[in-house]
Amino acid sequence: MRAGAARSRAVWAAGLLLLALPPFVGVPQYFMHIGVLVLIWAFVYTAWAMMGRFGLVSLGHGAFMGIGAYTVALLWNFFGITPWLGIPAGVVLAVLLAMAVGYPCFRFRIVGHYFALVTLALGEIVRLTIVALRDHTGGSLGLTPTRYGEGTSLYAFQFADKEVFYGIALILWLTGIVVWRLVDRGMARYALVALGEDEAAAASLGIHVTAQKLRITALSAALTALGGGIYTQYLVYVNPNTVAGVAVSLQIVFAAIAGGMFTAFGPTVGALITIILAEGLRIAFGAEIIGLDTTIYGLLLILFIIFLPKGILGGLLDLWARRGAGGSPGPTPRQAQAKPAG
Question: What is the pTM of this model?
Fold first, then answer.
């Protein structure tokens, strides 16, 4: 046990060292940009997987990301409120919205595909609201936060060097992994697994169904809004079609499922897939074939659900476990919920 723990710590240390190296070894700016995008989106996908892995399939996380993204930009542009306060404000608003929608759904047992449809509508309502308030949000053209000084300001949370934002994105991603592990190793995980299996049976054991669901939903919404705020500060631009609505929500779901939502690093693998795929298609086809990336996302999602229900990373870990156990079958996705994912 001690030797295994020591090896695990050594792998973690080596991995963190490799991730921390790019700003110091002269990595080209384009690849640094890709690294920042991967880390930020990996954080958002991890936030979704925290509730998705327990059977709470939300198709409206674009709403929480959009709120986090636009709140910080609007407070800065119209009131001069620093993003250090604007980002937390967006997180609070996203949590309030999650509670307002989640409470009646969980209280009246709106579950499964009905819950998915409610959240799907939520994401589109937020996107349409942003577009309708075009006098303030810029509508479908988007909004550019006002530049402060020479473009680098701690107060305005604006940095000209991508290396600085890479460090911020890395800390953000690590925060998501740490929160995942805390949830995975907390007592609430067992209650959530029980709820995913049978709500009535879980309630009969004394588990407060509504409270447990609201906690994980609020946590997921808060982290997603945080990711949206950091994403806006990095790009210094926000657009309703890139941070809110159905397309963004489905992208989040696809990436988490493709990478593996039952393991801590699965959503990160999903982020690598989606970012590399999107960039590869952009370089290969440009704007010649609009919607090609989302079409491929849909086709791949179907294939992953059929052949790799635990995602790429989950499937690889399962294969490794079977090899170590002499070919015995690995756990099902439901069994994977009940076992800490590390």
Answer: 0.89
